[in-house]
Amino acid sequence: MATSALRLENVDAFYGDSHVLQNVSFELGEARMLGLLGRNGAGKSTCMNVGMGLLSARRGEVSVFGEPVTKLSPEMIAARGVALVPQGRRIFRSLTVRENLIVAARKPDAGSKHAPWTIDTVFAMFPRLKERSNQMAAHLSGGEQQMLAIGRALMGNPRVLLMDEPSEGLAPQIVAEVMTTIRKLKESGLSIVLVEQNPNLVFDVADDIVILNTGGVAVVSTPAALRQDDALLRQHLGVF
Amino acid sequence: MSEIFSADNRLRFIALAIALAVLVSLPFWVSGIYYINVGSQILFFAVFALGLNILVGYAGLVSLGHAGLFGISAYATAYMLQHGFGHTSAIMMALVVGVASMALFAVLSLRSSGIGFIMITLALGQILWGLAYRWISVTDGDNGIPVRGRPAPFGYSLTDPVHFYYASLIVFIVAVAMVFIFVRSPFGAALMGTRDQPRRMNALGYHVWMIRFYACLFSGLLTAVSAILFVYYTNFISPQTLSLTASAEVLLMVISGGPGTLLGPIVGATLVVVIKTVVSGFIERWNFLLGAIFVAIVILMPEGIVPGSARLWRLVTRKRTAAPPAPAATTERTP
């Protein structure tokens, strides 16, 4: 069996008294991309927060490369090679582009198979960020902010990248640019969870698909199989 | 390299050189010891404000108890000297006590941020003020502790006000350089990250509490340094130095000048010290004037004098030039 990069097993999570995730289980294989789909409020971002340790699972287990991280703090999970590109970018608006990247820099693990990400390699991937390296991040366009959020996550030299709706609020042309970047990251061997509302974007790049519905896993499948099943997509995503 | 010699940076270097020349030559063109002493006060209060600015401006933690920490270091110096220790021992002890007290402050107050942090620091500051008043066997209560003499490093006696001014200037320049390096370092960026988005910093692998704790220690160090200069300047320390008004005053220096900027606390300290010591000689109700100035700053430049002036300057220069400025020029951080 292939190594699991990230695994959520029978996870229950709450916001106060609201039972948001109910018995959620899914697995991200190493060097694979998992598309996490679902309607608004289905629990996609909550899964990302649980994976990153920003929200504690009240029941169940979360593991990274086989190591349990359920009770660990976010900084300890980050130290194990997990990085989050959060919904809404959440860049540091009062820092320059360069400072946003520097602040996230972390040396790769000793046994890492990937070439390390540095400020130069991030700038090579996003030349527009290099042009604006001394500019305050607050003054970037939405697309540039998204590039910065991705670049910032990469500076941590992660083994697992959690991307929460990277296309949100972006113009179609910019979305295409972001998706090209995501494809390159996948090709580099990074294990990625891509959360999206738009299934077409995910089907083009993901290896596996998990659809969440009202806090639980409704479907585990592949893009090829789901493309054939309009009824299933209509039922859980309300599209097609 | 071209970045270093850009027009903006050239302008900054020229301004810095002029400011340094003015500060170094001050005793030659200012008439009377009184104004040289005012200069010394501006310098060490600026160091105090720079220390508080680390927390208020860069960490987003508003402290209303910094006068307590300032007072502890000042009392430590005075107490050591009173008990026959030399200046070196007194200064070293004041630095250690100041930083250790800040560490204790931080452990207690960093349990929360926002209004909780303000209230805990306020309470701790008031406890120290109360101790200064009531622990008479150590502090001599309301009578305070007098300090006799000033040190003479390398045979250069600081009893002379001009010499003391130059000593304060050297300490001030070192403090400004330290803060500049600190703020521009990755740690400084991380600290600002914890101010803007602590949860995000967690997710990036940072221990937010620890970053804030180290920032507190640096702030405590600068506060202790300024307190040592203060106690040697006044040759006296009393509980009044630890009062809530004193904490509010230094906070006003930071807020009026511009929190989160290097120049802001220096400008704020200059404003407050000049009004307190110079303008008060001409205007009986100087407190009223100080209040009116702060109200005007809050209304006209809510971000503080330095960022507010930078904003006005950009508006003026934009109107003068026909072409709109390049985006980078309009969005770089205020010094």
Describe what is shown at a glance.
Chain A is α/β, with parallel strands linked by helices and 240 residues long. Chain A is 35% helix and 27% strand.
General description of the model:
The complex is a heterodimer of chains A (240) and B (335). With 240 residues, chain A is α/β, with parallel strands linked by helices. Chain A has one domain: 3-Layer(aba) Sandwich (Rossmann fold), CATH 3.40.50. Helices cover 35% and strands 27% of the residues of chain A. Chain A has ten helices and ten strands. Chain A has a six-stranded mixed beta sheet, with helices on both faces. In chain A, strands 2-1-4-5 form a four-stranded antiparallel beta sheet, with helices on one face. Chain A starts with a strand and ends with a helix. Chain B is mainly α. Chain B has a single domain (31-284), classed as ABC transporter involved in vitamin B12 uptake, BtuC (Orthogonal Bundle), CATH 1.10.3470. Chain B is 73% helix and 1% strand. Chains A and B meet through α2 and α3 of A and α8, α9 and α15 of B.
List the helices and strands and how they pair.
The complex is a heterodimer of chains A (240) and B (335).
Chain A: E1 4-15, E2 18-29, E3 33-38, H1 44-52, E4 59-64, E5 67-68, H2 74-79, E6 82-85, H3 97-103, H4 119-125, H5 127-131, H6 142-155, E7 160-164, H7 172-187, E8 191-196, H8 199-205, E9 208-213, E10 216-221, H9 223-227, H10 230-237
Parallel strand pairs in A: 3-8, 3-9, 6-7, 7-8
Antiparallel strand pairs in A: 1-2, 1-4, 4-5, 9-10
Helix pairs in contact in A: 3-6
Chain B: H1 7-29, H2 33-59, H3 66-82, H4 87-109, H5 115-134, H6 136-139, E1 145-146, H7 161-184, H8 186-196, H9 198-203, H10 208-234, E2 236-237, H11 244-257, H12 264-277, H13 286-300, H14 305-320, H15 327-331
Antiparallel strand pairs in B: 1-2
